[in-house]
Specification:
The protein is an alpha/beta fold. The protein has a single domain, classed as 3-Layer(aba) Sandwich (Rossmann fold). About 45% of the residues lie in helices and about 15% in strands. The chain has a seven-stranded parallel beta sheet with strand order 3-2-1-4-5-6-7, with helices on both faces. It is globular and about 55 Å long.
């Protein structure tokens, strides 16, 4: 399938590792021109040898000055913008609500939700000028299902869906489509750390907690970052031209988070 993404101008936040890097690499493979940002200096430095086609800079998505500097440099080099992938996020704390430190709540929402606003508000004027504009916001299955002990993360990811649907209505008349992708259990370090924290809190083994998590899914295997990238690229392509305002799960049919 030809996705027709040649020379598309793309920004991916938190694109130096994990899901973001797989998304960025997939766009490059399709001939797109891609800029990524990240807060991880080590991961950014590694890109110069592993992924020389990617242009990468440091940026904290929760810091509006940092976002403005990155966005100005990236869009000037790209000569505009066709696709924004709001991927940046953090796991936040695993704790009962009365044990969640206010500063941990604030930080989780600042990165996972406000960070997407910080980019969306700058991107909208340029996306309106594109002939195939797409914004894809990474939410989570926690943005559709309740998630005990992970209230900051779940609240932020529910907020991402509200942001997505509202922007789809607002920007649709200008030809800009806006969608959210909701990963389930994704293979990688972040998911492992979340399950390890849960196991420690419960006094269980990692394998017990992992098995319970999979017991609530129909397809009992991890989603891969590459599968998430495939969904993102389809939405950004001409094949997704009339898909907007959707919260699309890639989760193996997960029915519950525990």
């Amino acid at each position: 399938m030809d996705l027709k993404l040649q020379d598309r101008r793309v920004i991916v936040t938190a694109g130096a590792a994990g899901i973001g890097l797989e998304i960025a690499r997939a766009f490059v493979e399709e001939g797109a021109r891609v800029w990524v940002c990240d807060v991880d200096e080590t991961a950014l430095a590694a890109l110069s040898s592993s992924d020389p086609a990617l242009s990468a800079r440091h940026c904290d998505v929760s810091d509006r000055d940092s976002v403005a500097r990155f966005f100005e440099e990236a869009t000037a080099a790209l000569g505009g913008l066709d696709v924004l992938v709001n991927n940046a996020g953090i796991a936040g704390p695993t704790a009962r609500i009365d044990d969640v430190a206010p500063e941990d709540w604030d930080r989780c929402l600042a990165v996972c939700l406000t960070g997407q606003f910080n980019f969306a508000r700058l991107a909208a004027p340029l996306l309106r000028q594109s002939d195939s504009a797409s914004m894809i916001n990474l939410s989570s299955l926690a943005g559709r299902l309740g998630f005990a002990m992970r209230t900051p993360y779940a609240a932020a990811k529910w907020g991402v869906i509200g942001l997505t649907k509202s922007l789809a209505i607002e920007l649709g008349p200008d030809g800009v489509r806006v969608n959210a992708v909701l990963p389930g259990l994704v293979a990688g370090d972040r998911q492992r750390r979340v399950l390890e924290a849960k196991a420690q809190r419960r006094g269980q083994s990692f394998s017990e907690v992992e098995a319970e998590a999979f017991s609530y899914t129909s397809i009992r295997e991890y989603v891969t970052p590459r599968q998430i990238a495939g969904q993102v690229l389809f939405l950004a392509s001409e094949h997704g031209r009339t898909i907007s305002g959707q919260a699309i799960s890639v989760c193996g049919d997960t029915r519950m988070l525990a």
